[in-house]
Amino acid sequence: MNRKIVCFAGLKKFFGDETSVEVASGESYAGLLEQLGELNPEAKEVLASCRIAVNEEFVPLNDTIKDQTTLFLIPPSSGG
């Protein structure tokens, strides 16, 4: 199943504002991050610290991807 992923901050340089990937049934959010790392190995370091949000809430990476059509990929950030 194809998933739309919206990227924020530094991830945009690796994947643009958004990307989409084909996700197998039963795939975990952690597996999705691994798949994105294979698509762009330069992003692996940032992806290792990312969180994924669905419906304005962060999801545990070991959870199975549900039927959401859009996932939000949020890298670590600091502010002032």
Description:
This protein has three helices and five strands. Strand 3 and strand 4 form a beta hairpin. By secondary structure, it is an alpha+beta fold. The N and C termini lie far apart (39 Å). Helices cover 24% and strands 29% of the residues. Strands 2-1-5-3-4 form a five-stranded mixed β-sheet, covered by helices on one side.
Largest sheet: 5 strands, mixed
Find the structural class using helix and strand composition.
Answer: alpha+beta
Q: Order of strands across the widest beta sheet?
A: 2-1-5-3-4
Element order: H for helix, E for strand: EHEHHEEE
The shape is globular
Our count of helices gives 3
* Number of distinct beta strands: 5
Ranges where pLDDT stays below 50 over 5 or more residues in a row are: none
Q: How many angstroms separate the termini?
A: 39 Å
Average pLDDT rating: 90
Q: How helix-rich are the residues, as a percent range?
A: 10-25%
The Cα radius of gyration reads 12 Å
Q: What is the beta-strand fraction?
A: 25-35%
Short description:
The protein is an alpha+beta fold and 80 residues long. It has helices at residues 12-15, 29-39, 44-47, and strands spanning 2-7, 18-22, 51-54, 57-59, 70-74.
Which key terms come to mind for this protein?
alpha+beta
Protein topology:
Blueprint: E1 2-7, H1 12-15, E2 18-22, H2 29-39, H3 44-47, E3 51-54, E4 57-59, E5 70-74
Parallel strand pairs: 1-5
Antiparallel strand pairs: 1-2, 3-4, 3-5
